[in-house]
Specification:
single chain; 345 residues; 6-stranded mixed β-sheet; 10 helices
Amino acid sequence: MTRMTPQSRFPLLKRRQLLAGAAASAAVLTLPGFVRHVRADGPLKVAAIYTVPVEQQWVSRIHKAANAAVERGDIEYVFSENTSNNDYERVMREYSEAGHELIIGEVFGVEDAARQVAADYPETAYLMGSSFQPKDDAPNFAVFDNYIQDASYLSGIIAGAMTKSNNIGMVGGFPIPEVNRLMHAFMAGVKETAPDAKFQVAFIGSWFDPPKAKETAFAQIDGGADILYAERFGVSDAATEKGVLAIGNVIDTQADYPETVVASALWHFEPTLDHAIEMVKAGTFKADNYGIYSLMKEGGCSLAPLGTFEGKVPEDAMKLVMEREAAIKAGDLVVEVNDEEPKSN
């Protein structure tokens, strides 16, 4: 694996040279709605652009899936991390010029610029975390996000069974649909086992600011919360210091907080990425909503093992979790998607 930085440079071709080369290439075929071209056998060239460190929980799941594909021999993988929104378009163009066949990342703050890049490189496939839906006028730009509301709902059932104060704190990054729907699903799960529970909801205005998340969590604990929903890094640290419990999000941090993190909703990006790789190799990649591959029935999310809390969650609650999980996987239960900003009550 080659590690790139946002400051790395690829030689940029003039736009007319790129278009002339593409038009002359016998390998390029055009088919409406698809990124379709003849490619040689071998690993797919994949690049990723991240606005945060690869250690950040959301991005770490994409990075993990990409490295798994490298180990299988399916892709070659380079990435840039800590790319600012102002620099995102430039990095996208450099990777596109360099001939990467699939570019992945998150464009929540640079949607318009990212779609313009995709329009300028119609033979490149783009799979981007986005709050928006795919569009017919951008046939090579597919979107995804972490539709892990199924697992978030199950973790809420456990949280409701473990709270004694019926006061639960929730610390998120930004109130965007991808975060809101997980919080609402968690809250719905809590209501299954603690119907009188109240919630303190706060957003820190950052995807990666553990100190700020920690201070926000301290305030919620001072306000009576005895369980915290740790949508951001830093919350579980506050819970550990104050001796309260936490519920994890996206990754499993139970080993890092064995006396604090009761359960976590895990995101598995592998089904999303593997489908995109398959489509690009087959020449059938198109604008689509890849969010569905994060659903529990697709293997895109799960409830983490309870670890040190095994046997400590009330038996009735765990029985309910197993019943609801089976219903979700069978398609008999669909967890409600609510993208509205959650509020304290």
